[in-house]
Design a protein that fits this description.
Length: about 350
C-alpha cells in the first residue's frame, strides 16, 4: 500500500512551502519513494506505480541510476566479442566514442535530447557522413536494447526517440574496368600480402566486410571451393562459391597460420582499424576516389546484373531476404539490358 506524508517548511526567503512524499512498500519489490509539490500528483504517481507492479510492468529506477554508459559499453563489447567477434574491432571504435563523450553519465540521465546533441556533433565536429552517423546511433541503440531486454537496467530505449540523419540515395558506386585493374594491381603490391585475396574475394562473392573478416578456416572447403558464412547480417547462414584463383591463393595463404587465432584474415596486434590503413593506401595508389570497401559488394552485384543474372539470382548471391534491395542496380547502362533481351530473342525467335 502507498502512504503519502505531508511536509511543510519555510524556505530561505521566508515563504511557506509544502511537499508530499509518496512511498510504496510491496512484497517482491524494493521500497520506492517520490516527492511532489501537489498531493494530486503524489496520488496519481502512487496509483500508476502500484498498477504497474500488479501488471509486472514496474521497473526499479535505481538500476538505471546505478549503471553508467561506460559500464553499458563495456558489457556490450563483451557480448560482441562472444556473438560477433568479427565485428568487435569496429564496435570498439564506435562505442568507444560514446564512452568517451558520455561515459560518466548514469543511464537514468541519458535523455534523447542529450544523445541527439552528441549525434549532431558527429557530423558537425567529427565530419562524419549522415550514413556513418546513423551507424554510430545503431551501435548505441543495440547496446541499450540489450540493457532493456537482457540485463534489465532500463525500462525503455532512449534511442527510440532519437531521429536518424537522412541519407542521400545517390547512385550505386562500382568499379569500372580500368579502376578494377588498377585497384587489384595496387593490392598485389601492398605490404599486407592478403589484401589482394580479400579484395578479389569481395568482388567475386559480394560478401560484406564483417562477413569476410569473420571467416574462419573451418568455414572454408577448398575441395568444393565453397565458403560458409555463419555471421551474415540478416542472421542467416549461407554459402558462397570461391573462384579458382581465390581457392589457389587461399591454399597458399593457409600454409602460414597463427596458432592463437583461427580466423582466415586475423588482425595483427591490437589496432582496431588494422585493415583500413592498407585498404586506403591501395585506393590512393590506384587513384580511386569516393569509394568504400562496401562498394566492392555493389561492384559484385553490378557485374552480376551486367552479366545477365536475374534479380532473384543476385539476391541469392548477396544474401538478401527480399528483392527490394536488389532494385538499386536498375541504374545499369541500357546496352547491358539490351544484351539480355537480344540473347532471349536469339534463343526463342531465331
Amino acid at each position: 500500500m502507498a502512504s503519502i506524508q505531508r511536509r511543510a517548511w519555510t524556505d530561505q526567503e521566508g515563504k511557506q512551502r509544502t511537499s508530499y512524499r509518496a512511498q510504496i512498500r510491496r512484497r517482491g519489490f524494493p521500497p520506492v519513494t517520490a516527492t511532489f509539490e501537489r498531493k494530486t500528483d503524489a496520488d496519481k504517481w502512487a496509483r500508476e506505480t502500484e498498477a504497474d507492479m500488479s501488471r509486472r510492468r514496474y521497473f526499479p529506477q535505481h538500476e538505471a541510476e546505478r549503471h553508467t554508459l561506460a559500464e553499458l559499453v563495456d558489457r556490450q563489447l563483451e557480448a560482441v566479442k562472444i556473438d560477433r567477434p568479427h565485428d568487435y574491432d569496429r564496435q570498439r571504435v564506435i562505442l568507444g566514442w560514446w564512452k568517451e563523450k558520455l561515459g560518466a553519465y548514469t543511464l537514468a540521465t541519458l535523455t534523447p535530447d542529450l544523445i541527439g546533441r552528441h549525434r549532431d556533433q558527429l557530423q558537425s565536429k567529427e565530419g562524419l557522413s549522415p550514413g556513418t552517423v546513423n551507424r554510430y546511433l545503431s551501435a548505441l541503440s543495440k547496446a541499450f536494447t540489450n540493457a532493456v531486454k537482457e540485463w534489465h537496467w532500463l525500462p525503455n530505449n532512449p534511442l527510440a526517440r532519437v531521429s536518424k540523419k537522412p541519407e542521400p540515395r545517390g547512385i550505386v558506386r562500382y568499379l569500372s574496368d580500368d579502376e578494377r585493374a588498377a585497384l587489384l594491381d595496387a593490392c598485389r603490391k601492398s605490404e599486407y600480402k592478403p589484401l589482394y585475396l580479400i579484395v578479389l574475394f569481395a568482388i567475386t562473392t559480394g560478401v560484406r566486410r564483417g562477413e569476410l573478416l569473420g571467416l574462419r578456416w573451418q568455414d572454408i572447403d577448398l575441395e568444393r571451393r565453397v565458403a560458409v558464412l555463419h555471421n551474415a547480417k540478416n542472421g542467416d547462414r549461407r554459402s558462397v562459391p570461391i573462384v579458382p584463383e581465390g581457392a589457389e591463393l587461399l591454399r597458399e595463404h593457409g600454409k602460414v597460420r597463427r596458432l592463437d587465432n583461427d580466423q582466415v584474415f586475423a588482425s595483427d596486434g591490437d589496432d582496431p582499424v588494422w585493415f583500413d590503413k592498407f585498404w586506403y593506401a591501395a585506393l590512393k595508389a590506384a587513384k580511386i576516389k569516393d569509394f568504400r570497401f562496401h562498394d566492392l559488394r555493389h561492384t559484385a552485384a553490378s557485374y552480376l546484373a551486367m552479366s545477365g543474372a536475374t534479380t532473384a539470382e543476385i539476391a541469392a548471391v548477396l544474401g538478401h531476404r527480399t528483392l527490394q534491395m536488389v532494385k538499386r542496380y536498375a541504374h545499369l547502362p541500357d546496352q547491358h539490358t539490351g544484351a539480355v533481351v537480344e540473347r532471349m530473342t536469339r534463343k526463342y525467335f531465331g
